[in-house]
């Protein structure tokens, strides 16, 4: 209770009535007005007095009597409590500084301030007064009002002598002096002295009730809770409307709380909290704890949350109880946050110990800590409280945490601190290394993944299954890096060390081993493992099974077992008709090898019709054309070759088709058409091997026509665009430089190629020389030197080196952030690519470059192209989908973006999945769907992710959600947890500070 408020209740207006006096006067003289005024003043007729004396002043010229009249007029205004009283008194004091009434006027001036509650101003006036010059009655008034003004202005020491004097000599204010002396003793915690005085006035009409309340306050302060309850409840019953009752409810409630009667405490404390706008934090804490103990956990959270706005011991205790309340409510996430805050405070070591233990256990039970707390918090507990009664239990749990944590790096650091790890610890370490490897692999960090899998394997057989799986995944890493022999060895190691034949990974190992052997061109062994995979794999894996049948067909084809190959291709096509273009092509090709030409033609034509977007359409047309020639059907052959040139002019097959047309027309005796066909190849593809063949074939046509001069003129017109002849010196110089370079690629051998280019700038082998140099510089990371060499290669269209040059040039442009140039080169590569791998690389390059340029339309098209490939790896599929989602979001296609984000967010192990989950939640929040946003972020927290930046952004978003709900406590919890646990050096810190400042903290 505010002491000043209490004291205000004891103040009552005083009416000062002067002694009455009898005066006589002559009504016919000016002085008679004065005498009548004085007589009216003496009987308290201040209005009449003022009127008479004002009239007198207008008639008189006697300064002495006018001074007396001015005093009486000011005094009348004072006694009437007139608004003009203060100004009249101040004018009088200023005008008559030597007046005999000066002290009384100054006392009145101070009293005006006192009566209006301006106690500081009253004190200033009272301090100027010599008390000995006041009348005895005024002296008592002076002491009381001066003392009370001191109390009102918190100048207790100066108030003491005033009330001490009144206790000794006072009459009217003696009881008041006893009360205020007791009050002063109460404020100075001299409770025995205070009680002596308070009991003296306990039955006083004016001071009895406040004295009783102060007695109750003292009993509470001295821990006499039973007395507080007894007297407090009695006071509440006897004085139900008293202003002290709000505070009294608090005292009684706190007393019941300290006596362990929580149910009784709740009722009184709730009344107190409801009746005051700013309840004391201690009482909110007591109420929250009492509610917790009586099972009202939601109520406990509500009240305890109001006590945590300061960094002190009370907040530390409150957070501990908040954590327990949240646990009872099943909200482990908020429980973890509360225990975290309590465990970081050091005001109360016992509370810190309990909070840290509960924090550790909550993390352990949820099997996840958003910001890598799991291992670290157990270590912190053992380091901070090594002799804790929980220490043995924590040690046991630490091993379990090693096995369950997702903070693999922290777990490894912790284990590596152990000097003599047990077998149980080493088993946990082996599992952690394996999990860390899979995490790196999921995020396409292949070299790091291989390192961790190798470390897991090196630990031996602590966990045989983990060791076996590490062998498989290391094989995957080596396969990705093109080390097929070592990949095959790892796959074999896995298959030989596990009996889990029914597991998907076992079948996948068979399939991958088949692929590794296929890459090594060990087709017989590859065929065996693909067959094992097909025999053991469920029919539901149609896409992979179809691919295995295709590879089996390839193996049989390379082993010249064409009929069996055809059968396997047919099986592949039946399993995946929608993606059966390759199988259909190969099946038809096998039919041709078995001289079933009509079946080959039929199959190739069917591919063109059924799979118009297939990358094999141009090859199918070409094979159909060749087969038509074999069976003597010239016209459909010509149509096939012509269609290739018209529809696929950039395809390498188009050059071959041109040669075939030239030959067909020549054999048909159509020399002009033959010449036109050969010239088209020469002029459209001047750098190609087919152009050189066309030059030789064209020579045969002109010889047949006996028109060698025309042929010679044509060659001259080419101007060197087709280098069909090389001088002996040219050839010898290049071949010598080439042999040295290929035998030992080094700077000195590369210099030999440079010298060749300087000697033969127009030589027949300049493109090849530029190719070798471009590849040398590129492979050594000398991109600036590689650029002009690769550019020179591309100046010779359709050279055998064009595709390689496009691959390297596009990569350099991308690495140099020249994304516009890179897109153009990637698009050329997409057209020129002769392999699926290079075509995929081109499309991926287009996607990434367009994303960097924020060309949203181009990104979406590129992503669609990639995602249409049924054989796209999961990692690339995830990347393409993410870029498409972000570009759709930026271009206002929110529904499309959300659809992709939902798919991506299912796997938060990848950086794309983690960001997608956050973006999805942010989108919900921006749309006003707060519940969906909160649900999505909580799902991310529960699932966990190694990508802590996006987890941190999720926490920031949760804080924004709670700020929007006016739940500042929850917002503060998330922000403080993030501030304490997030270790990244980025923009998260500034986001936290902005929001804490908004909440009134920093």
UniProtKB/TrEMBL annotation:
SMART domains the UniProt entry points to: TPR (SM00028)
Instruction: Please report a single Pfam family linked to this protein.
Output: TPR_6
Q: Where is the signal peptide?
A: 1-21
TPR repeat spans: 430-463, 507-540, 546-579, 618-651, 655-688, 767-800
Q: Any keyword Repeat?
A: yes
The UniProt entry, under SUPFAM superfamilies, shows:
TPR-like
InterPro entries the record matches: TPR-like_helical_dom_sf, TPR_rpt, Ycf3
Parts forming coiled coils: none
Gene3D superfamilies, alphabetized: Tetratricopeptide repeat domain (1.25.40.10)
The protein's name: Tetratricopeptide repeat protein
Recorded source organism is: Coprobacter tertius
Provide the taxonomic classification: Bacteria, Pseudomonadati, Bacteroidota, Bacteroidia, Bacteroidales
